[in-house]
What does this fold into?
Amino acid sequence: MRNWRSNRGLFLGICLLVCLALITASQLGLLSPVTGILSIPLNFITGIFNRTTLETVDAIEMPSDVPTLQRRVADLEEALARYQSELVELREVANDYQRLSELVNYTSQTQDQEYVAADVISNSDSNAPLQTISLNRGTRDGIEIGMPVITQLGLVGRISDVTANASRVLLITDVSSAISARLQTTRDEGSIVGQATNDLLMEFIPLNASVQEGDIVISSGLGGNLPAGLVIGQVTNVQQREFELFQNATIRSLNNFATLETVLVITSFQPVDLSVFQSTPVAAGSGS
Amino acid sequence: MGSFLSLPILMLAAAIQVTVMPQISIFGGRPDIVLLIVSAWSLNTSLEQGVLWAFVGGICKDLLSAAPIGTSIVGMVLIIFAIHAIRQQLFSVGFFTLVWVSVLGTIIQQFTILIILLSTGFQPQYVDQLGYGVVLDQIRLFIVPSIVYNLIGIMPVYWFVRAIQRALGTDLRLTR
It folds into this structure.
């Protein structure tokens, strides 16, 4: 029995020595040729198992991933909707910034006038008899009837009605609107009236006036309703007939009245009522 | 016959160990199939054949790892000798025998591998990563999960090994 136990211990010692020798030889690189040969069949088998395992795992995991993918898609759709909403808001902010910066640029160019910026709260209905827009500023903000309304692109109209906190603007495209204007280059004068087609027509241009397409038309200030020098639009067409005493021109405003959002009201301008001068001769005549 | 059979069985086991087992690894642990097969085989075979299986299995494992050849053999040889030392006291191999074989085998195997790797200059990447020290890291990260997996795996492995041994007529209890 003791002999057996000692043999077993010897056997264990030999085994451990062999292991130690293997480890040392492996560390020294002495087993490299042997391990290279032994690894060939083992690597071959491992390669087969690896491919099979990966294909099996893919086949198993693919269907089980569907709920995960569906949840992922739902999360991404939710995030996309949230970001789209934020994008719309940011675009609105960018548009506001662009509009306001253009307005500020305009006001800086005309320092002698005082303005009140106003948001358009209702646009003109093209089917309505009067072409008007409504603003969110009223008498509390210093708005009065007759004040000119402009944008950086030119004249919009005049205040036709006002309440404490809102006002209505009669657009220059309204058929009842008539504005004294002049051609910026030739200084020839005329009168701009609105058309049912939402266009502008410049009437009473002298026959000898040289009117060219593209000429800029500005307000003349005659009549006292508007300050002089406000841009109204550009000439797009000239009608000159020999049997008429004047020539007409179609004017296109640079403003798109259907999409106005922010405007400026010139509060420093006070319209002049010239009707008193028209009634004076009658009163004088009746008096004499 | 059992000695010759060790090579294909343990080569397949080593290949499965490095290909299939990582796919079913949970919490960093996985069953050590080679260790389980060698331990299960040695429970019902001679010491010499058990040692042979330990050498073949250890070499197959080390050929597929970065460890020096012989690293895995030491632990398995110690386990084989421990099994044969205790087996003399056992009337038959039962559930509790398989439990202590898998638990003791896992502990011996993992610690011998760690000691050999550290003594040969290998610096395992998990060393002291949790700040508990090398030994506690080894227990926390590898030994405890491996014990659980080996406890689960020892039953089917033992059933498989016994079936082969009976088929080959190499069962020690049948032959002695």
In short: Residues 283-288 of chain A have pLDDT under 50 and may be disordered. The interface with chain B takes residues 8, 11-12, 15-16, 18-23, 25-27, 31, 35, 38-39, 41-42, 45-46, 48-50, 53, 57 of chain A (CB under 8 Å).
